[in-house]
Amino acid sequence: MVLYDGRRDISEEEVFERVRCYYKQASLAMEYWGKGDKKVAIDLARSIRNSLKDEYKNNHLVRIKNLYGNDKYFINYTAAITDAYVKTTGQLTYQNAFSFLYDVCDYMRHYFFEIVSNL
Questions:
Q1: Contacts of 8 (CB under 8 A, 6+ apart)
Q2: d(Cα 78, Cα 80) in Å, to the nearest integer?
Q3: Spatial distance between the Cα atoms of 41 and 25, rounded to a whole number of angstroms
Q4: For the chain, what percent of residues have pLDDT higher than 70?
């Protein structure tokens, strides 16, 4: 389910919670990867990627941009989602899954450092 759905105002805390969620999920998947459980890590990575894809498509709709385009959290959130989603192209594989997960954490940290720095 997308955060900026066009039906209501989105609070700062809702944005922060979603960013934390992406960061924690990607970190957890990297932990699984590090423990040698790459199948679980890739399954989590695919779930994250599908969610990012939905957010990416939604946040680039003209209707959504018109509603939230002046909101600084929407701008940063959309940038983080976009960068994390488009960085890795094609199917997630054993060769690119860890890099994708790292990128998700990195972009969430870049755009919302104060939110994820304490996790």
A1: none
A2: 5
A3: 10
A4: 99
